[in-house]
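Researcher: Go.
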Amino acid sequence: MQKLPALLWLCAFPLASLAQSAKPAAEVRRYAIEVAGLQVGTMTATRQPAVGPEQVYTLVSDVKVNFLFYHLKIYYQVTNRFRNGQLLLSTVDAHTNQGDFASRTEWKGDHYAIVAHQYKHHYEATETQPIRYAVTNMFFAEPAGQPRAFAEYFGDYFALTRAKDGTTRAVRDGREDEYQYANGQLVAIIKKNPLKNFIIRLLP
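Model: Structure:
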């Protein structure tokens, strides 16, 4: 009978080891991208579990549109690495039917070096203020009290305002996106376009 406690302990040991080695799952949000009621692509936002003071966000968008004379193909991936809540490195790799493009924002110890070379958008700058909130963050929580969000693709900022209907409007250089939340979760984005609005809708 004295051997029973030891036997139970040995049986439980593999389960305890497994529990200790199991890693928290990444948070993933999947969206459909629609134009004129038709799905033309997908968008996936991922927040990796924090590793010490560091946390990584990714955003992947894949769009193909063919309407008469309007053809659009865009695949891009945003990767943001934060440490202690401050952005250390942001990269954007874009592949389109107009060519390949990239943006990079990197903390150099006392400033960011920002280079954004995208389709019809070329921007280089330095920024001395730490960046603590970016567009990728908006996929995982409502931007309560945030006046702006770093737009990784462009290398500068969206100004954020909360409308009376509860939506959040992100405005930059005449461009406006509308973020819609329900119970703190991002459920839709309306990207306003002169031809047709793009609607990014959370998948069930």
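Model: The helical segments are 3-21.
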